[in-house]
Amino acid sequence: MLTEIKDLTAQLTPRLIEIRRHIHAHPELSGQEYQTAAYVAGVLSSCGLQVEEAVGKTGVVGHWPGAGTDERVLAIRTDMDALPITERTGLPYASRQPGVMHACGHDIHTTVGLGTAMVLAQLGEKLPGTVRFFFQPAEEIAQGAGWMVRDGVMREVSHILGLHVFPSIPVRSLGIRYGALTAAADDLEIFIQGESGHGARPHEATDAIWIAAQVITTLQQAISRTQNPLRPVVLTIGQISGGRAPNVIADQVRLAGTVRSLHPETHEKLPGWIETIVQGVCQTYGARAEVNYRRGVPSVQNDPGLTQLIEQVAVEAWGRDRVQILPEPSLGAEDFSLYLQEAPGSMFRLGVGHPDQANPPLHHPEFEADEGAIATGVVTLAYAAWQYWQQRL
Fold first, then answer.
1. In 3-state terms, what secondary structure has residue 271?
2. Distances (CA, A) of 333 to 221, 240, 261
3. From CA 50, how far away is CA 58, in angstroms rounded?
4. Contact 118, 62 (CB under 8 A)
5. DSSP 70-117
6. How far is residue 29's CA from residue 139's CA, in Å, rounded to a whole number?
7. What is the pLDDT of residues 116-174, one digit of tens each?
8. What is the distance of C-alpha 346 from the center of its chain?
9. Would you state the torsion angle of the CA atoms of residues 23, 27, 29, 34, taken in this order, to the nearest 10 degrees?
């Protein structure tokens, strides 16, 4: 079967490169993927899949029923949205949309998902069970997966697979991660209310800016002294606003930032822990505080059995030297984790790094994925789907 999948993928590769370049040249922002979705739906329909459009607002779902002898439903998820970045690659198929670019490789993801659907459709009833393909919008704003789940895409799904490109891994290689792959990402907003006064008489006022500085410092110090160092927490205050004049003590300050963590137990405790510290500092110095902690997406926790299946498939398809076991997770976020609250799943890293040259990181205006990764991704996902039906996870 592996040989057949590789042969089918090789035949499709020129078409897949055309698809990728079309998508790359016509990027659309999160929640605005109307043309991309229509294009994806057209490709899926031409392969004989049952297609649902406008799922999760601008998402697309493709169904391949297989022979129907196995009741399990395997989902394969890819994402479609681009970023508000002006492309500087100079590619002949560079973005034609000013200020919008596929700088995170979702054009590769979408193409790999379509290629996998094409290959599995040609295998026909050799597949015992149903494969459900998710083409998700709005991953970059961490909302699309939630939209899709609310529209019921995970009903009856037994397991789910996903992938994400990685420029630090060479093209035609893969990265496998057991356990936590990405971090939980939450939003933090703190309002500090003091009392205004003359800059020359601080004892007559309650300086919200100075107290905000104490809050930031105390939070960072408390992480190192009260949180388990083997369960990391990253708290970044990225915005500070307050004050009206150089000689007026500010009465209000707004802090905004992001909080990242890897372990579910730590993630659960963070809102209360931050609230206690902020209120304690503000009360000490006579200020009031309002803490708004907004849950984002949880950590991607890869299912061990499905991750082992991906590793076995990748080693068989490409050889051990092209399969890396990633020793560390990323503190980036991925709303793929929301599907994992509904069913076990696993996501792997697809190498897109060009050999013998510098590779700009994801979200960079010069990010450029090596298209050789497309066939690697298609074969890996298609063969993983085939092997899924041969095993009882």
1. helix
2. 24, 23, 10
3. 17
4. no
5. S--EEEEEEE---BS----S--TT--SSTT-B--SSHHHHHHHHHHHH
6. 10
7. 999 999 998 889 999 999 999 999 999 999 999 999 999 999 999 999 999 999 999 99
8. 12
9. -60
